[in-house]
Amino acid sequence: MKFLDGGRIVSSGGIDPSRALELLYRNILSGIPPDHLPIAIRILQLLNVHHHDLSTADNQAMFLGLDQDTFHKSIQKLHAVVYVPPANECNTTAVRIYHHSFSDFLEDSDRSGKFYLDRGVAEYDFTLQCLHWIENGAGSPSDRSIFRFSVSNGWDACCNLSDDFIPGIISRLERFDFSRLTYARVGQASYHGKPLVYDGFGKFLQWLFSLGSICNKSLISVVQDTSKKQVSASEEIRVQHCTESPRDYISSFIPDAGAPRIPFTLRFRLGNASHVYISLEVDIL
Asked: According to the model, what pLDDT value does residue 196 have?
């Protein structure tokens, strides 16, 4: 059969290799205590879908909202298939899956059974965690890298969810406190001296608007004249979004915009009970 030796697959015997691996992986996963299994699955989901994105075990645990003790206890039975750094390296080295065959096994429901990792569920959980960090910000210096990571990935992650998870994410966005949005939370950078949102936030606005008011629960609307809304400076975030096709981007919000002069400013009301106004200057990349 085949077994793992430090991440290498080693052959032995004459049974079907894929069947041998399946039995091996099932046996390893069956060793996880039942009360640790749900958390272990969440960790494996993160490793399987975003294995390059968080560079240390400490950050991986923090992103998932787990303390280090819970994080490590949940995967301590997986050392044959998952690299877990020693305690003194958790702030410099990430947990990672040794071999792609284990990832393939986890994503095959017929082979993995109750240990199946649904990629859609993994992406949904990842998106929810990003939104949590974006909304709550960085409470301490140790949180800042997770906060920045969530801002740079979370808005884009919303756009990439499959249709099955859109109602769930809209429900979460209905509870999101948009009034707490700041330049940092939308991904402020500098572009010729102006605030520039990460590409993900511009895509997020477009994606949310494209769902239509019924599906998106009127979480976003175009505001043609903010003066009538008596918008104060403290309520409005002024940012810039650069794209290769600015007129196409603008027409996705205002179909009859024609050929607007670039740069062009779009204004949005984002959120329901707790909201913010976004003044988005659209320019060419």
From this structure: 45
Residues 6 or more apart in contact with residue 184 via CB below 8 angstroms: 137, 147, 151
Assess contact for 137 and 42: CB atoms under 8 A: no
Give the pTM. 0.86
Write out the two tokens for 265.
Answer: 């400013």
Q: How far apart are the first and last CA of the chain?
A: 55
pLDDT in tens, 162-215: 999 999 999 999 999 988 887 767 765 544 444 444 578 999 999 999 999 999
Strand partners, 282: 241, 264
The answer to whether the peptide bond before residue 246 is cis (omega within 30 degrees of 0) is no
Domains present along the chain, CATH in parentheses: 2-117 (1.10.10), 134-139+151-284 (no CATH)
With beta carbons less than 8 A apart as the criterion, state whether 216 and 259 touch. Answer: no
